[in-house]
Amino acid sequence: MNGKKRTIILIGLAFASMTAVKAQYVNVVQPKIMVLPKTINEDDNPIDVLNRDPNVRVAITTVKEQFQKRGADIVDIEAKMNNVRKNSVFQEGTTGQGDLKKELIDRSGADIYVEVEPVVSLANSGNNVKLILQAYDVSTAASLAAMTANSGTFYGDVAGLSMRAINKVADDFLNTIQTYMNRMYNEGRSLVVKFSFDDNSNYNMDSEMQGGELLNEIISDWMEDHAYKNNCHSEGTTSSGMTYDDFRVPLIGDDGRNYKVNHLSREIRKFFISIGLRCKTDIQGGVLYVKIL
Fold first, then answer.
1. Mean pLDDT of all residues in the chain?
2. In CATH, what number does 32-186 get?
């Protein structure tokens, strides 16, 4: 092999290696992110917090702008809140502020929401802005990333200091979120599923069903068949219940839309109907409760 040909082959191999390495870091799915102020009291909702504190509004706007400059797909909180308030199901005086916040998050279309708590200090010796950021998975309320950014003390306004603070952590913060989303795309989103029985139910996990199988065996087979890549783990079974402490669902469903916890809830209800039983389901964060009637 002559020197020229060997050089060409080596360059080709080097290029292939660089391409393979680069492919490992390609964003599999970019999340939609909603940035909102942290609500301290249960009676608060994010929009009221924005409206009553100009410093909070400035900080939130700055964080959104810096995330967008880095290519993040941002969901506008105020536009979404207006849509929620127009929803006929939620009338003023009948819906708690905490419920309004939950409804905003659930209906936002976001994959991730980021709560920002600005701590502003103004003094003759200089001003300081500290931003406390916490990212959560909308579907499970799992904490994904937590960082604190400090502007340092300068003679500047809140907007400038907020920008100085967020620029220190924005890249790492968004990269942490993206890594989580990529891992979920490959491994599935982890949920907890708890089965129990209504007090008036005639069944328990040891009930013999048609065909001679026990109810817990039928449920176990269905759960294993329907877990993403058959990835699930049962914490244990008793006659009164069964718990899956790690049940994986896909990030994206077969229809190309985000797979939500309520999709699994719907599938489980249909499953019980198919074996002649009924159930009620309740979703709280990343836990799906299934009560067999």
1. 84
2. 3.40.50
